[in-house]
Amino acid sequence: MRTIKSAKVFEKVFKRGRRVSTPRVRVTVMECSDEGGSGRVAFIAAKRLGNAVTRNRCKRLLRAAAHECGLPLSGQAMLLFATPKTFDASSHEVARDLERALVKAGLRS
């Protein structure tokens, strides 16, 4: 899975992307045709969620959900943000919310 590592790309997606929220995950998505067609994903858990153990668990849940939903989508750059409800959820619940967010964003039907 290709991830977004550049702060420049991260800022670009954050500023220009479409935002969609569900209780367990927030998604910011932007079309990126200049990347050669393959999509990229970033997993974010802010410090306000808790200590390192909490943030790492949230990111693991987001990664598992992304894998279950078949991310990254080609031609899309996505930022997946953990919410306070992410920590207490199972990976299947997070995947269900992520799928719902993709439908809201118009990336799935």
TrEMBL record:
This is Ribonuclease P protein component. InterPro entries: Ribosomal_Su5_D2-typ_SF, Ribsml_uS5_D2-typ_fold_subgr, RNase_P. GO terms for molecular function: ribonuclease P activity. The keyword Nucleotide-binding does not apply. Its EC number is 3.1.26.5. The keyword Oxidoreductase does not apply. Pfam families: Ribonuclease_P. PANTHER family: RIBONUCLEASE P PROTEIN COMPONENT. SUPFAM superfamilies: Ribosomal protein S5 domain 2-like (SSF54211). Keywords: Endonuclease, Hydrolase, Nuclease, RNA-binding, tRNA processing.
